């Protein structure tokens, strides 16, 4: 027996909702019921309790995505499962598709080493502060970076302070004395040893990360691997990722070759040589690099946030490793799994065409301004007219708010957001901030749909 769903909506959206459901041809049966409210987004759970007299034999009730109130309490009162649908009706097919394919993003198999690159120049308190920041953003190991020809008198104290707080720590240097000091101080990993410095691994318990003795020398790396395997000691190998135009493609080939020669060993990739040394947004770079790691079973990466444009690198890597793990496990493309790395674009930025928005505008009978976007531009409308522009300043003469500065300020903010969304190809929802994915902490400040929004400046007036 198929599931029966009840869709609750408002008068303006009822026709469109019925049309979308008809085109979907869903496996479930359904009833569409409008609650006598013009705008579906204004429906609340309390309103549903007062107005809904019949649940029409539904197994589930789907309410508008922006419906405010306690859904759990509503479900308990009605004795039926209640769910918020998508914010936009056009997303309904995707909503039900997602419901059938839930991805677990709690799992991953790539460890992130987050490097504090200037540790010799900062104090213990700042080192611990940065470590906590990196851990919050997904780091598993805090890498203490040494600097060439630079004294680091507080290295041991820094490592021990981190260890006392439960951090896993690596020390990063090409200087043997630094590595030996770090290992004796309690570092868990040493970056980096090569064929002629393997003796350090005999002096300390830390796990070494092995690199070629000279750049691109895989033969020396093979010999170092053989020595460590002979001692039955754990180790990790880093064939070295090179920057673009300085051997990047060849270095990817090296990683592939090392994996082919040694199918079972642990490998590390230092992704910072790409994210730091390429002036482009890093979210896509991290997605691609973590995809390569997924294909080659590379389970350690070294990430840095030195350049300001790479200031979210650890957080992006954390999201990317989870997406790639889910995609690989489900044997699917890394699409429609999570949108956090879609900082500048959306998979479906313009859910409605200009004609559909104009049709909606024709049903408006009040003076409140609505703002929507389509591929054709920014649309501003109320009962008195429908206007389209690509520049908000062109819409200014259409606004009858000369004597209402609060309303004018509100519309200015919303039109500016709409212009940015239209230019970049992002989803615009009036009265909501633009969603920048993991690129902005403000994206995490989502609307609490359990509470009721207080009246704004214009409503108070």
Descriptive report:
It comes from Methyloglobulus morosus KoM1. Pfam families: DUF6513. InterPro entries: Dihydropteroate_synth-like_sf, DUF6513, Pterin-binding_dom. This is Dihydropteroate synthase DHPS. Residues 93-334 form the Pterin-binding domain. With 461 residues, this protein is of the alpha/beta class. The chain folds into 3 domains: 4-100, Rossmann fold, CATH 3.40.50.11600; 111-329, Dihydropteroate synthase-like (TIM Barrel, Alpha-Beta Barrel), CATH 3.20.20; 354-443, no CATH class. The protein contains 16 helices and 15 strands. It has helices spanning 11-24, 45-51, 71-78, 92-100, 124-136, 155-164, 176-185, 199-203, 218-230, 248-261, 272-275, 282-296, 313-329, 354-361, 405-424, 457-460; strands at residues 4-9, 29-34, 60-63, 81-84, 111-116, 141-145, 168-172, 189-193, 207-210, 236-237, 266-270, 300-303, 370-374, 377-382, 385-389. Strands 5-6-7-8-9-10-11-12 form an 8-stranded parallel β-barrel, surrounded by 5 helices. A 4-stranded parallel sheet has the order 2-1-3-4. Helix 2 (45-51) packs parallel to helix 3 and helix 5 packs across helix 6. The longest helix is centred in the last third of the chain and has 20 residues, at 405-424. It starts with a strand and ends with a helix. Mean pLDDT is 92; it is low at 452-461.
């Amino acid at each position: 027996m198929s599931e029966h769903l009840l869709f609750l909506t408002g008068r303006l959206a009822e026709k469109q909702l019925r049309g979308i459901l008809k085109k979907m041809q869903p496996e479930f049966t359904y009833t569409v019921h409008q609650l006598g409210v013009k705008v579906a987004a204004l429906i609340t759970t309390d309103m549903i309790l007062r107005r809904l007299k019949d649940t029409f034999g539904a197994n589930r009730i789907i309410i508008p995505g922006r419906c405010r109130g306690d859904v759990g309490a509503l479900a308990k009162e009605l004795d039926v499962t209640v769910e918020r649908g998508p914010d936009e009706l056009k997303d309904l097919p995707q909503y039900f598709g997602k419901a059938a394919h839930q991805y677990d993003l709690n799992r991953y198999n790539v460890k992130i080493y987050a490097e504090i690159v200037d540790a010799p120049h900062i104090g213990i308190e700042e080192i611990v502060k940065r470590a906590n920041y990196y851990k919050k953003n997904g780091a598993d190991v805090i890498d203490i970076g040494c600097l060439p020809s630079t004294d680091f008198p507080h290295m041991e104290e820094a490592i021990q302070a981190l260890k006392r707080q439960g951090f896993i720590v690596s020390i990063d240097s090409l200087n043997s004395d630094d590595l030996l000091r770090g290992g004796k101080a309690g570092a868990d990993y040493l970056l980096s040893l090569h064929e002629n410095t393997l003796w350090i691994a005999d002096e300390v318990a830390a796990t070494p990360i092995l690199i070629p003795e000279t750049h691109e020398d895989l033969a020396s790396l093979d010999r170092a691997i053989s020595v460590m395997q002979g001692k039955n000691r754990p180790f990790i190998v880093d064939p070295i990722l090179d920057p673009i135009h300085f051997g990047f493609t060849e270095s990817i080939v090296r990683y592939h070759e090392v994996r082919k020669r040694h199918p079972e060993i642990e490998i590390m990739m230092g992704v910072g040589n790409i994210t730091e040394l390429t002036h482009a947004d890093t979210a896509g770079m991290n997605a691609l690099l973590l995809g390569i790691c997924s294909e080659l079973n590379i389970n350690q990466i070294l990430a840095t946030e030195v350049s300001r444009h790479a200031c979210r690198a650890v957080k992006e890597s954390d999201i990317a490793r989870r997406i790639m793990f889910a995609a690989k496990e489900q044997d699917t493309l890394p699409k429609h799994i999570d949108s956090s790395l879609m900082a500048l674009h959306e998979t479906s930025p313009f859910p409605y065409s200009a004609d559909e928005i104009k049709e909606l505008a024709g049903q408006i009978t009040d003076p409140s301004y609505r703002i929507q976007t389509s591929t054709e531009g920014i649309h501003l409308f109320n009962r008195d007219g429908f206007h389209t522009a690509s520049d908000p300043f062109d819409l200014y003469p259409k606004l009858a708010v000369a004597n209402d500065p609060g309303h004018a300020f509100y519309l200015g903010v919303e039109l500016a957001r709409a212009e940015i969304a239209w230019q970049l190809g992002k989803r615009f929802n009036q009265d909501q901030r633009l969603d920048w994915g993991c690129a902005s902490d403000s994206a995490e400040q989502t609307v609490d749909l359990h509470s009721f929004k207080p009246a704004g400046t214009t409503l108070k007036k």
